[in-house]
Amino acid sequence: METLKRILLVEDDPNDIELTLTALAENNLRNEVVVTRDGVEALDYLYRRGPFAQRPVGNPLVILLDLKMPRLDGVQVLRQLKAEGQLRLIPVVVLSSSRESQDLEECYRLGANAYVVKPVRFSEFIEAVKQTGLFWALINESPPESVKGP
Amino acid sequence: MMKTMETLYGFLTGTLRGRLIIGVAAVHAVMMALFIGDSTVRQRAMLLDRQIEEATALSQALATSAAGWIVADDISGLQELAEAQRRYPEILFAILADEAGRVLADTDKSKQGLYLLDLPRDVHQTVLSKTPALVDVAIPAMIGGRHVGWARVGIGQKAAGEKLAEITRGGVVYALAAILIGSVIAWFMGRRITRRLYAVQETIDAVRSGNHLARSSVSGVDEAAVMAHEFNAMLDVLAERDATLAATEKSYRSLVDKVQTAIVLHDGQGRILICNPLARKLLGLSDDQLLGRSLIDSEWHFLREDGSVLPVADYPVSIVLSTRQPLRGYVTGIMRPDRDDIAWTLVNAEPETNDAGEIVLIVVSFVDITERRRAEKNIHKLNLELEQRVIERTSQLEAANKELEAFAYTVSHDLRAPLRHIDGFLELLQKRTDAALDEQSRHYMVTISESAKRMGDLIDDLLSFSRMGRNQMSRQRVDLGELTREVIREFEPETGNRNIHWRVCDLPAVTGDQAMLRIVLVNLISNALKFTQPRPQAEIEIGWRRAQVSETVIFVRDNGVGFDMTYVDRLFGVFQRLHRPDEFEGTGIGLANVRRVISRHGGRTWAEGQVNNGAVFYFSLPQPLQET
What we know:
In chain A, about 40% of the residues lie in helices and about 15% in strands. Chain A is of the alpha/beta class.
């Protein structure tokens, strides 16, 4: 039996992490959620290097990417991811508080697969996370390469 | 001698006087000659007739007297008879002959016995000769009807002829005298006439030598007077014309001298004919240095705009002469030997051609543009400075704008996160404690949650309001009618189950930013929908009218709860509301946005309302009405 694929959450704010995890759990998503706290950690994870060199093989099912992070922010991560050959195929959902058009444009231009604005109301947030999670985890067909890891 | 003859000949044929004299003399001569000639001829004829008469009479007498004697053959008696005829003064001969022609008696006695051969055949009185020298008449002597002989008389004219010749001579003398006297009189007459003519001539001379006021004083009614009068009239006309011409010339001279443009007139070879004072001043030269010359002396230069010396071929006059076209707007500098500065001039040169197309005049006019050039340079410099300042200011503004953007962005992102946390954890808390909490606690939590949400709304609205002010505004053709329909459609989810009566006119197309105008319509319509909620039937009317030639006014009228006109000033303020949050929701940013957008379009916003009796919201857009 295949292990359920992981979901990678890239988010710096602990409160946001807690809320997101809670929301995901609320929706009974059984996938494991890996959390990295900024862009550097995220890339380290994806490339299986540094502290994550020993992590199990296999690309995540989907990356939930926050934009505003210290060190390496979401846009830079996105740029790197979508430039690469292997990691390019992993679906990236940008999760951001910003509805600013320039952010939207830049993310889509860099190849983000989706952009979800974090609503202020938690109930709406839960709903958004649920829909997102359901979609990417259950409905969407993953690209073939993501079965194989680096 | 020849000289006198020549002068005389000239006088007689060339002058009026001479011709008059000749004419008069000729008339006299001809008339007198005719008269005398005629008279003489008549006299001679008369004389001849008399001669013949006399001859005939004598002959007759003789024949009659001699007849008997011839028969009697009385030769001596016949001879006496014949000789008796000698007493007649002009008698040349008297002959008595018999019927055979034998001379019986003759004044010339020696002729007796000779035969006359030229007696007439017929026995009849015959005139054998009829000349003044001799009138010869032969008459037959008859006795009782019988022809017995002949009497023949010859008469001359000597004495009478001499008398006649004398008379004729006298006549000729008279004729000559008449001619002479006539000529003299003619001469005097001529003098009188021509003197009058000369008087007019004197006036001409006077006028020609400069006295333009001279007028002929010849008076009278004869032709000379008429001519003098006409001549005076002509002189008057000429004088008038002269005066007009002088006046016109003076005007033109004034024009040329006083006009504030330097003018130089060149002939077809480029030589200077006329210079006006301003030209002399600008060129820095006097008339002697200018008139008649085409080039000025070598110390004096024309310059190109860049300051280099202009070659002669590029002088305005040279260019016109070679191109044969007018030259306009030519800028050249004048470097004068007596001054350090350069006078910049704007030169125009216009050629004037004759019928053959050759240039006969070139009018060069130029103005001093030194000041203007300096001013232009200044303006240019100022412009550059201004541009520089504008660039600086723009970059400052851009920097400020960027700062604002960054600020807004930060606000939007960083402020929202804590809000989200508040709400999120609050809800989790609610879930966990719901059973344990009492009504009051629950109420507190709800309030906290709602406050957080409200803060989120406020932040959103504030951001969008700031965006209204910052964003680039595009100017396109926006079909308001279409836009309105679209917006109304978008509200359908909310309005689908409500009783709303829409009255929407076909709004015109305007020039503006589509996105911003959409926001205006959304806000106004959303307000109308919101404040008509209490009504069983909402009536919302959207229409427009043309206020002035260049302004379009659009309004949204509703039959909602209206507002108190006392507070109309606060309507469009940021976050200003006239209703409590529990009456109607909203942050009070909608109308502020509308006002901002419209004012960026250059229009105005205003409203009218009555409490509980609906409201109308107007906005104007300045532009010419376009056809939809």
